[in-house]
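Researcher: We're teaching a course module on how sequence relates to structure. For the next exercise, students receive a sequence and then see the predicted structure as tokens, so they can try to spot secondary structure elements on their own. Here is the exercise chain.
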Amino acid sequence: MFHPPVSPEACPALVLNADYRPLSYYPLSLWSWQDTVKAVFLDRVNIISEYDKVVRSPTFEFRLPSVVCLKTYVKPSRNPAFTRFNVFLRDCFTCQYCGTRSDLTFDHVIPRSRGGQTTWENVVAACSPCNLKKGGAMPAEAGMHPNQKPYAPSLSDLHQNGRHFPPNYLHESWLDYLYWDTELEP
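Model: And here is the predicted structure for the students to work with:
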């Protein structure tokens, strides 16, 4: 059976903190093969697992790491960053007005033109049609109230929601290091 050659670009490395937990789940902490090789040669990481893929120079051959662990512990942030992706993740990639999962943007519940702030407590995921329909109106004026009141999520909230949206690709060598905080089945 013919297997086409695998490009190094198809070989990212899962990056674990010194406690062997991913630096980040959502998005998953991945480094390009170039960044991973550089970190190995700078002695910043330990190689935990490798791909079958080898990269070569004229004098050196190196198997690409699939899982690396930082040698120095990086203290995780206590609060998630306020980003578009994290708003969508908090709201489960669902329009908070009609429930669709397509053409998402975000909406200020209290419009900025009415003094609304761009904060966790005032921004929700919304599809473009609902966002346009609501426009600069207050929720009561538009007759459009979010299904869930916007709130500042914890990292745990985002991790819990993220389990419903796994990355498109998970290499088998990564699976032992993901979802350590998942309750085990009897």
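Model: If you want an answer key for the exercise: The first strand starts at residue 13 and ends at 16. The chain has a mean pLDDT of 88.
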